[in-house]
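Team,

Forwarding the record for the chain on the shared tracking sheet. I've put the sequence and predicted structure together so nobody has to dig through attachments.
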Amino acid sequence: LTETTPKPLIKIGPKNFLERSIELLIKIGVEEIVLNTHHLSNEIEKFINKKIYKVSISLIKEEELLDTGGGIFNGTKHFKDEPFFVLNPDTIWNKNYYEELKVLENFYFASKKPVLLLVNKNKSYDKSFKGDFNFTNHETVTREKNNNYIFTGAQIINRSVFSEVKENFFSMNLIWDQLIQKKTLFAKESNQTFFHVNNLKIFKELE
């Protein structure tokens, strides 16, 4: 499927992954969106140019892949010290996430600490996930041998989390591990069934 269509433009039901992501961000009051693109980025640009959104949407194309952390770091330079949501578009976002992202937002503004939206792996449609994190009292994030929570693909951070990074290419796991070590990574729990499109089999089942 992705040989001809970039993954964010693949449809599940009447909307593609990117539309679902953008509409959720607009619903919670985000006014400026940056799309980090690489594969078939011209198709994403064409799609955005055809749509009429009441928010600013800009595209940044990674000429070479920068991994999950490098992509965010590169794409948010003009946000300076302002906090921002990061939304991965291969989760199937819907309006039921509105309240949960608001909880994330309220937590961030009260604590000024990076915060992830996690879901118990029992709530995942795809049972292949082994778990990414645990969190104590449903707030401070830890990583252990057995992890019961999956990262949904939603987080609020600001660029200060990248202060110790010297490379352009790096994973968000590096950043999360640094924050976990300092006990400064927090989380809130999602109660939604987690639909994440990991492969063609899952896509066809969800379709």
